[in-house]
Q: What sequence folds into this?
């Protein structure tokens, strides 16, 4: 019963989305309040229906309803409850329902909280959002039905991909989709503004919180995915410039540019057409990411390899959405009134530089990701574009951007003097130079570039703190005055300081884990001892373990520091019989300054397992044979995710700013924009 109810709910949601995409837009064009008013209940109804369908899908997974083909292919009766629930979106069909749910959620949120929006803009925005919903709901109903029945039902399921049976991957897709789909509402605002022919400071203020929410969620989704890759894949790293990783990184970069561009549009009524373009590109790149992951053209540990015919459907959505929006932009953008003028050395100029560098960096990642696919599609040779390309092209673009981050907030609007800014940032500069010298001394001058990167990270952190100190007049006013200014400081300013400091923490983590990582790969037998980065490891053998839906071999390492027991590390190799797949489970011991990271491989002499026999790592568990061990010491790597968390906190603090909730500037009436014929 639940699958039929869910399927009917999806069909009804598609019908509601069709009405929502037409009636409010027509009402806005005809200035009909009754038709415009249909947007709000339609947005609520669409969200309710998609939520009902998603609830039915989750229920089918939880009760292990093996009459549903999706449950058969992605679940198992012995699977833990958490992974039964996450299995509902750990597949193509279910993930698309989750996409549609978040899309409807953002539409309902605008309907509920957009009370200050002009009726026409609100109606157009919700209609555009519904058009996107029509495309994806049609895609689900006609090509990716998650409630397809199977008869006769099998006695049990085929299990979810073992790599996805992990807490990190349980919550990674929802966060990532909140970011991807969150940019859809920004896109809808941009299209509505172009149709209306008016982009002003009020529009920019309405767009900023939605952009901030989407960017923050995308930050969390990317960070959670990299953390999963770090501890689950067993290779000791957290980023590999994988095409699927890049697919989520590109809209994050454009979203960061959009956040800063919207500030200029709001404060100075400038860069309006550029802000509109960034809003289009952010959502376009989200659609590109969706196409790459679900078209079957990529082979990745976190890509859904599906029927390419469904990839063509998504490609059609991408072409229509992006092509149509860019055509509208080309027609209407030149008619928008230009904003205020400013000097190159000004806060506006700094934000323009920020946008140029972020835009160029995005283009670099885009080319490096899609060029091999394009070359192969036209019959060319297969080429591989990996970390060396991105490190040689992307990193140099980031250096001037990170240097400019501390300057930007200190510059005045319209016109500024760099000399005055240097005078205010001398403390941050001095402390950063001190960090460089300390790093060189500690490392004995072996990693000069790494020392400079550590200084750059310090520059970001201390620059953010100095800017905050300037705002509250720390050391320049009585303590009571400082306290009063700090308490009354806009939360957006607090959020900016926190986010920029978080970026500095992330740079520290990236630098430390890249420059000073220690890796030891060796064969070990019972009782063998070896040293890694000042720690002594003693291998105590292997033992068999059994989980709810897997069997495993666990290795035991005793770790000593200064001849005292520091940790017991127990990496595993697991076999999931239902799926017929194995995974590597790393054992990680962290003190927040560095990670000890251990994995266990196959025993010496283990060949390929037979078609029916268990793998050697299970049959030889507990025996005194040599095992392949891989041990890493990763300095500062926890700060990569700590920095991402701090950035999310900063974004969250900014979202609580009262100016994002009430008091949007009044849109003053003005002459209608001339038509193209005029």
A:
């Amino acid at each position: 019963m639940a699958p039929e109810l869910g399927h009917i709910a999806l069909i009804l949601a598609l019908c509601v989305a069709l009405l929502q995409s037409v009636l409010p837009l027509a009402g806005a064009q005809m200035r009909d309040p009754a038709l415009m008013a249909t947007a709000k209940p339609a947005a609520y109804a669409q969200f309710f229906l998609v939520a009902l369908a998603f609830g039915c899908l989750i229920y089918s997974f939880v009760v292990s309803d093996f009459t549903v083909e999706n449950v058969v292919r992605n679940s198992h009766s012995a699977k833990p409850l958490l992974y039964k629930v996450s299995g509902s979106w750990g597949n193509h069909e279910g993930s698309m329902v989750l996409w549609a749910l978040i899309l409807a959620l953002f539409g309902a949120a605008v309907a509920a909280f957009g009370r200050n929006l002009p009726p026409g803009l609100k109606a157009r925005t919700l209609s555009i959002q519904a058009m996107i919903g029509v495309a994806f709901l049609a895609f689900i109903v006609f090509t990716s039905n998650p409630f397809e029945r199977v008869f006769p039902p099998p006695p049990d399921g085929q299990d979810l991909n073992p790599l996805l049976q992990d807490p990190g991957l349980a919550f990674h897709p929802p966060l990532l989709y909140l970011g991807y789909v969150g940019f859809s509402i920004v896109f809808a605002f941009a299209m509505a503004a172009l149709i209306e022919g008016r982009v002003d400071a009020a529009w920019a203020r309405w767009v900023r919180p939605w952009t901030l929410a989407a960017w923050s969620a995308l930050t969390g989704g990317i960070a959670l995915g990299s953390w999963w890759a770090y501890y689950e894949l067993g290779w000791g790293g957290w980023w590999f410039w994988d095409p699927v990783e890049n697919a989520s990184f590109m809209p994050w970069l454009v979203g960061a540019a959009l956040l800063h561009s919207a500030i200029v549009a709001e404060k100075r009524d400038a860069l309006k057409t550029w802000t509109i373009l960034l809003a289009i590109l952010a959502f376009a790149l989200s659609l590109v990411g969706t196409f790459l992951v679900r078209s079957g053209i990529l082979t990745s540990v976190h890509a859904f390899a599906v029927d390419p015919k469904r990839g063509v459907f998504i490609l059609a959505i991408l072409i229509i959405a992006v092509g149509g929006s860019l055509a509208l932009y080309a027609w209407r953008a030149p008619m928008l009134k230009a904003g205020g003028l400013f000097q190159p050395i000004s806060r506006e100029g700094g934000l323009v530089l920020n946008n140029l560098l972020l835009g160029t960096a995005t283009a670099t990642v885009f080319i490096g990701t899609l060029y091999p696919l394009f070359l192969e599609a036209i019959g060319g040779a297969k080429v591989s574009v990996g970390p060396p390309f991105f490190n040689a092209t992307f990193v140099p673009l980031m250096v001037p951007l990170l240097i400019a981050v501390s300057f930007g907030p200190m510059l005045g609007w319209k016109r500024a003097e760099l000399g005055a800014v240097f005078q205010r940032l001398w403390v941050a500069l001095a402390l950063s130079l001190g960090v460089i010298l300390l790093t060189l001394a500690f490392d004995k001058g072996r990693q000069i570039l790494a020392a400079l990167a550590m200084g750059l990270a310090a520059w970001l952190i201390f620059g953010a703190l100095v800017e905050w100190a300037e705002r509250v007049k720390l050391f320049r006013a009585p303590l009571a005055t400082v306290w009063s200014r700090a308490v009354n400081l806009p939360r957006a300013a607090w959020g900016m300081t926190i986010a920029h400091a978080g970026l500095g923490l992330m740079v520290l983590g990236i630098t430390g884990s890249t420059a000073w990582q220690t890796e030891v790969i060796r064969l070990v037998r019972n009782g063998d001892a070896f040293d890694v980065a000042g720690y002594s490891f003693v291998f105590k053998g292997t033992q068999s373990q059994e989980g709810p839906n897997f069997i495993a071999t666990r290795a035991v390492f005793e770790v000593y520091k200064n001849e005292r027991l520091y940790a017991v590390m127990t990496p595993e190799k697991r076999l999931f019989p239902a799926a017929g797949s194995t995974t590597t489970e790393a054992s990680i011991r962290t003190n927040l300054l560095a990670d000890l990271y251990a994995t266990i491989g196959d025993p010496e002499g283990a060949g390929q397992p037979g078609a029916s026999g268990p793998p050697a790592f299970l049959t030889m568990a507990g025996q005194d044979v040599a095992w392949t061990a891989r041990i890493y010491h990763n300095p500062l790597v926890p700060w990569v995710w700590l920095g991402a968390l701090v950035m999310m906190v900063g974004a969250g603090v900014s979202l609580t700013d009262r100016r994002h909730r009430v008091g949007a500037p009044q849109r003053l009436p003005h002459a209608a924009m001339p038509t193209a014929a005029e």
